[in-house]
Amino acid sequence: VSGPFDAIVVGARCGGAPTAMLLARKGYRVLVLDRAGFPSDTLSTHLVHPTGVAALRRWGVLDEVVARGAPPIERYSVDFGPFHLAGPLRPTDDGVDTAYAPSRVVLDDILVRAAAGAGAEIREHADVESLVVEDGTVVGVRGTGARGKAFTERAGVVIGADGRHSHVARWVGAESYADRPTLTATYYSYWSGVPVEGFEAYVRDRRSFAAFPTNDDRTVVVMGWPRSEFADNRHDVESTFMRALDQAPELAERVRAGRREERFLGTGDAPGFYRTPYGPGWALVGDAAHHKDPCTAKGISDAFRDAASLADALDDVWAGRAPFEDRMAAHQRERDAATMPMYEFTCQLASLEPPPPELAEFLFAASRSPEASADFVGLLAGTVAVTDFLAPENVARVLESANV
Ligand SMILES: Cc1cc2nc3c(=O)[nH]c(=O)nc-3n(C[C@H](O)[C@H](O)[C@H](O)COP(=O)(O)OP(=O)(O)OC[C@H]3O[C@@H](n4cnc5c(N)ncnc54)[C@H](O)[C@@H]3O)c2cc1C
User: pLDDT-based confidence at 262, cuts 50/70/90?
Assistant: First the structure.
């Protein structure tokens, strides 16, 4: 492939690589630039809900992800202390009822290679430093590549898939909305010898944590505590982490019997926002376009949804089926409608405040019904709509059946 390109994608992970792959498969000339090299890790745990797994399957890369060894996750449970909700996962429309938590070293590399296999040109160690703008329209990028070589590349659209601190978003002045401050600090590490039953989550006093299996017979244990405690706890993560785990003694026992294989990784920087994802000559995808607290593990699955939606929108524009402004506005509306209820739910959970009394009463009632429990974990899995689960009729039905 040589320029000029139809699209330049800045960032080659869960947002950028699938966008590039899907555009290249539609026959467009795509250049992907990432300052990182692959395979490589990034600061993130990596539960991929059935909705995200379904995307991997549609794209033809699921078999490779599975072959790399992350075990299937067929059950979620959420333990609130006095009661817990657990169940198998309601399937997606196309019948996927399994989650996986492949390490990002594995997952991102598979996605980058799938983009290359589709014909996109991938340039690693390429740091994008500015945009080329003509008459108010973005027409390309400038940066420094491997061995310090400066480059300028031009394209019909520049797509910022460069994560929550997106430079592309900053350079174009993308507006944000539905902003929330960082609510939690999140830390995680990897243990061997810690058996888990699918995805296990625990909600406790100003703490929430989860454990789930990944590659190499390891278990991820991830924990959030209030952002306000970040400064106090950051120099003593291990004891803060282990003390909080003791609020779920049975899990704590399993973790203590295992062996921690990595250092603790974490961040106190996870604001919530939506950004307008397009403008003249540019678009945003993945975390660059919409970010939220990691407590509901939606980032990767949302990035996959967003990538497919953006690739379809650009294809419609370039094939002459719709004007850019109209089609991208529709893409934005679809994104917001698909993600906003879960975003609100995520922000509520990330506050680490006890649920409002009516919600607590409803969840308690739901915990007494296997069907309602499976609906709740389906909500987390992305296969039951938040709006359906919290619909007044459903709430009334669950409360009523719990009382008999
Ligand atoms: C602690 C934590 C735990 C999480 N756990 C989960 C989870 O369990 N499940 C889940 O679904 N999500 C989780 N997330 C969220 C998930 O990590 C993100 O939603 C996801 O990585 C978004 O992918 P992305 O491609 O949009 O951005 P990123 O993964 O941030 O990738 C951006 C890429 O852009 C590149 N880049 C940036 N700037 C430039 C530049 N100027 N030039 C060239 N390249 C550039 C970077 O090198 C990077 O490779 C978690 C996040 C955190 C912080």
Answer: very high
Q: What is the pLDDT of residue 355?
A: 87
Report how far apart, in Å, the C-alpha atoms of 175 and of each of 178, 284, 290 are: 11, 11, 11
Ligand 1 proximity of 16 Cβ (cutoff 6 Å): yes
Mutate to test the pocket of ligand 1, among 8, 9, 13, 190 (most ligand atoms within 8 A of CB): 13
Per DSSP, 93 falls in state: T
Instruction: Give the pLDDT score at 324.
Output: 98
Task: Decide if 306 contacts 275 (C-beta within 8 A).
Answer: no
pLDDT tens digit sequence for 100-141: 999 999 999 999 999 999 999 999 999 999 999 999 999 999
- Residue 404's pLDDT is 54
- 159 CA distance to ligand 1 centroid (A)? 15
pLDDT tops 70 at residue 2: no
Identify the bridge partners of residue 222 per DSSP, sorted by sequence position.
188, 210
pTM of the shown model: 0.98
Average pLDDT of span 280-292: 98
Per-residue pLDDT, 74: 98
Look at residues 403, 180, 378 and name the one whose alpha carbon lies nearest to residue 274.
180
Mean pLDDT of the chain: 97
**CB of 240 sitting under 6 A from ligand 1:** no
- Ligand 1 pocket residue status of 224, Cβ below 6 Å: no
Residue located nearest, by CA, to atom 41 of ligand 1: 128
Total residue count of the chain as it appears in this document: 404
Verify whether ligand 1 is closer than 6 Å to residue 35 (CB atom): yes
3-state secondary structure of 291: strand
What lies within 8 Å, CB to CB, of 102 at 6+ separation is 46, 48, 65, 68, 70, 110, 214, 215
How many other C-beta atoms can be found within 10 angstroms of the C-beta atom of residue 381? 30
Distance 13 CA to ligand 1 centre (A): 7
**Tokens describing residue 225:** 């505590």
> Is 102 near ligand 1, meaning CB less than 6 Å away?
no
Residue 99, classed as helix, strand or coil, is strand
Closest C-alpha residue for ligand 1 atom 39:
162
Distance in Å, CA 370 to ligand 1 centroid: 35
